[in-house]
Known about the structure:
heterodimer, B: mainly beta, seven-stranded mixed beta sheet, globular
Amino acid sequence: GESVGLHLPTLSVQEGDNSIINCAYSNSASDYFIWYKQESGKGPQFIIDIRSNMDKRQGQRVTVLLNKTVKHLSLQIAATQPGDSAVYFCAENRGATNKLIFGTGTLLAVQP
Amino acid sequence: KAGVTQTPRYLIKTRGQQVTLSCSPISGHRSVSWYQQTPGQGLQFLFEYFSETQRNKGNFPGRFSGRQFSNSRSEMNVSTLELGDSALYLCASSSGTYNEQFFGPGTRLTVL
């Protein structure tokens, strides 16, 4: 397979703080990037996406930053809430299909 | 609008058997992708179907196959099951390329 599945890194934050989750992607030809949230027992849920012709995109409480020079993607969550506790995956898409290459994932633990 | 549905939700099989999993996409979506999720390898792309044609395939052995029907519903089949096939199998649907992919809850397959 193409995705890397290793130990899941964990980010622990206090409720109300801002969270930043980072992701390094593998292919400079990738032109579409997505962040997903996965809660226990559920499928991944779309959070926000960004195309390679942009370097920043904002949603509700979330911001995605794309640095193509160093192939780096980050997800910022403002005022993190207990309901944000989940595993977060970045995914990259390359070519004219819907094939997604997923990152390892980061476990976000929000402390009340 | 109903989400992506997958059946069955849980399945237990023994080595050597075969299994068929089903995915019903969101109404109007023509693209269906399948992913395998395991703790060791993470989320890995299996294949994508678009308007009944396989548009892309991941790095899995030929024991893994799929198809899509004219109503966009999709099935995937795994023959000669191995212990390592135990995983959560996820299906995602999309209305097109570079559009949001919606994931179903997955089918949890256990091979004994």
